[in-house]
Write a structure and sequence with these properties.
Layout (H helix, E strand, L loop, with lengths): L10 H4 L31 E6 L17 E2 L2 E2 H10 L4 E8 L4 H9 L8 E5 L3 H9 L8 E6 L7 H12 L6 E7 L6 E3 L2 E4 L7 E10 H14 L7 H5 L5 E5 L10 H22 L1
Parallel strand pairs: 1-4, 1-6, 4-5, 7-11
Antiparallel strand pairs: 2-3, 6-10, 7-10, 8-9
């Protein structure tokens, strides 16, 4: 690979074409990676909705980010197969633009041996996509879990822990994964700093987010009726006075949004593959 110098201060601009830096990286040896085994419990209680909408304009890759491959698998496949390995998940709903449903199925789902039933739902805008996916979830499921398809570093253990956290707190309506804010926060008005809040009470919300199905359905109905648009699913529950727990996740549970994210995710996936191989030795 041609040596590249990265300015540590302005790395994001240097990595604007980050995927090109992997042109010479040989992932062939990783394509036979140990696969997570799909499993469905006898009486699963959770349905997972994977949000794979959006155009991926910020990522700048033709065809969007969901089908970008790392070590022979699309990002979307990697996200879905982790839920496939969680026994309490009895249904996976993948929401994507309607005109791309066949493409996503043929490239990211059908070629891989999923065990959990997978259905597709149309949707592009986040809140509308979540509602579209929810409409395909049968009443038999007590919990609904939402996840960004572009977060492929989520782990089976964290999904199970998040579901268990909600199940173990009967007075709570949901649980979401997040990380404590590590940067100093500033309140800015018209380009001028007007305050520095205590960052100890601020967390960066991630996915997955899991909710009791009943209140989640009511929250969507209320938001639709009131014209409310939240920035995540938890905000819909919060506005109804629901109690949502925070589950601390890992810093590497990042979302593939801009080109430089590809480098981080690729390196993490490669390390995870090698770790799983060592565990099986």
């Amino acid at each position: 690979m041609t040596e590249k110098t990265i300015d540590p201060i302005f790395a994001p601009s240097v990595l604007e074409h980050a995927m090109a830096m992997f042109d010479d990286v040989n992932f062939d040896a990783l394509k036979a990676e140990p696969r997570l085994e799909g499993v469905v419990d006898k009486n699963p209680k959770t349905a997972a909705i994977i949000l794979a909408g959006g155009s991926g304009e910020r990522f700048g890759h033709e065809g969007g980010k969901q089908l970008v491959e790392i070590a022979g698998k699309p990002i979307l496949t990697r996200s879905a197969e982790v839920f496939d390995a969680v026994g309490d998940v009895g249904l996976i709903v993948i929401v994507c633009p309607e005109e791309r449903m066949s493409e996503y199925l043929s490239k990211a789902i059908d070629p891989f041996p999923f065990v959990t039933p997978i259905v597709m739902a149309p949707g592009s805008i986040r809140q509308e996509s979540a509602f579209s996916g929810l409409e395909l979830v049968p009443e038999e499921y007590e919990f609904v879990m939402l996840h960004d398809g572009a977060r492929p570093l989520i782990t089976k253990e964290l999904i199970e822990h998040t579901i268990s956290t909600l199940k173990g707190n009967i007075d709570c309506d949901g649980a979401l994964v997040g990380r404590p804010s590590i940067d100093t926060l500033k309140v800015v008005e018209n380009g001028v700093v007007v305050g520095t809040p205590d960052r100890s009470v601020f967390w960066n919300a991630q996915t997955p987010q899991v909710f009791r199905a009943g209140i989640y359905r009511r929250a969507h109905a209320s938001a639709l009726s009131d014209g409310f648009v939240g920035t995540d699913d938890s905000s819909l529950i919060e506005r109804l006075g629901g109690r949502v727990l925070m589950v601390e996740g890992k810093r590497d549970n990042i979302k593939l949004t801009v080109p430089e994210d590809y480098l981080i995710i690729s390196a993490a996936i490669r390390a995870a593959i090698e770790d799983r191989r060592e565990e099986q030795l």
